[in-house]
Structures are given as structure tokens and as C-alpha cells.
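Hey, resending since the last one bounced:
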Amino acid sequence: MKKKASSRQKSEFLWGWLFILPTMIGLIVLNIYPMIDTIKQSFYKTGDFGKGSKFVGLANYQKVFGDAEVWQALGNTAKYAIVEVPFSIVIALLLAVLLNKKLKGRDVFRTVFFLPMVVAPAAIAMVWKWLYNSNFGLINNIFNIKVNWISDPKIAIYSIAVIGIWSVLGYNMVLFLAGLQEVPRDYYEAASLDGANGWQQLINITIPLISPTIFFVIVTRVIAAMQVFDVIYMLIDLNNPAWKKTESLVFLFYKYSFEQSKKGYGATVVVLLLAVILILTVIQLIGQKKWVHYE
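The C-alpha cells again:
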């Protein structure tokens, strides 16, 4: 026989749902519904003059898999992620370990490194566009070199990745600092007594104990890096010789959906990106069992 819920239990149940309701509504309206609508739109073709939609089944997907521009954009996105993700994580981890120690001016350094996270992307793009300028840019003048950082097709995507690393460094560092606060100091003291140096402590104590945080950062950074758009959009214009080599999948989606009014085809590009992100996330979830320690 089921036990009847008390009035207090009913009240807690009701208030619990009331508290999470705004979040659930926001999730459904801003995330779930747009995702379902985008997948649905990928099976349609926008009518003439951007009016109406015609069901075309898998035609958009057949076209995507044979579109060289889409594969070029996927390759550009992968290059960006391959550079941005590991470097931003490794550098942020080393900074977090350094700033977790008793250091003079530690709070100031933490603030300075985190500042890029709160700066508007447009301001970041303007500053780096000046730094990268081939004629009067600060980087070329300091090192007395002549490099076309964002107009050379061979290096432009890597130059943009550097901006991505700089922008996200502070955010990753704060997450790692939060993880480091949970590591007991006793482990480091015992390791020091056993003669372990700083590098050995990092490899054998710090990384294993904050591996859940590292895993979280890796997953979220891969997802974010695969969606890169704003910096590329503001740095690279159509007259730039490197724009084909820097065009990301989200940039391609923007071009098809909003500039060419091919919303169905643009939605198909996004669904392809979603599939790639899902595959990468599943691979990471499977792989984390071998190196992430939750106890």
C-alpha cells in the first residue's frame, strides 16, 4: 500500500517545480525548440525570393556531402579547434597552478588574466586587427618582421586561434583554480618530503585530482571552438585573400541563411556541425573512463 504524501512533501514538491520552471521554460524556448526547428528546416528548401519552403527530403544532405566549400569550412574549424583547445587548457592550467600558490599580487594577476572574458568580441577583434596589421601593427614592429597575419591563407586561421586562446585563458584558469581549491595541501607536503619536485607533483598529484575539472573544460572548449564565428566574422572580410581558408561552419551557416536566404541549406550545415560535435563528445565520454578519477 502506497504511503500518502504529507502536506509538507506536497508543498516541497510544488515549490521545487516552481523554482526550476523558469529554467526549464528558457531551456525549451531558447535551446530545445530552435534545435528541433533547425533539424526540421534542413529537410526544406527556401522558395523563390526567400518566400515559403518546399519539402525536399534528404536533398540538402546529399548536396552538403558533395559540397567542397562545406568540407573546407569543416577543415578550417578543425584546425582552429586543434590549436585553440589544447593550448588554452595547458597554459590556463599552468597559470592556475602558479596563481594558486602564495604569490605577491596574486589577486591582481587573476583579475588581469580574466579580463579578456568580459571584453566585448567587437573590441577584441579591433585590438587584434591592429596588432596583426602588416604595415603598422605592434607585433611586426616589435619583432621587426613583415608577416601578413590575417591575410596569408597559410597562417590566418592559426592567427585567429591565438586570439581564441587569449580570450578564453582567464575563464579556463578560474575553473582550474576552483578545482585546485579542493586538493588537500597534505598531499603536496608529503610529496615534498619524499623529494618530489614541482613538475612531479603536477603530473602525479594535481592532474589526477582535478581530472574531472580538466575533462569538463575539454568538453566545453571543444564544443565552443567548433562553433567559432564572431572573431572570424569581424576580422575577415570577403576581399581578404585568406577568407576561404578561415571560413568556419557557423560562418557558412550565416552566409547561406542570412546573406543568401537559403535557410534550409544553412540549417543542414548546422545539423552537420551538431553531428560532428556529438561524435566528438561521445568519444570524449568513452575516453574519460581511462584517465578521469572521480574519487
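The chain is about 70% helix and 0% strand.

Sorry for the duplicate.
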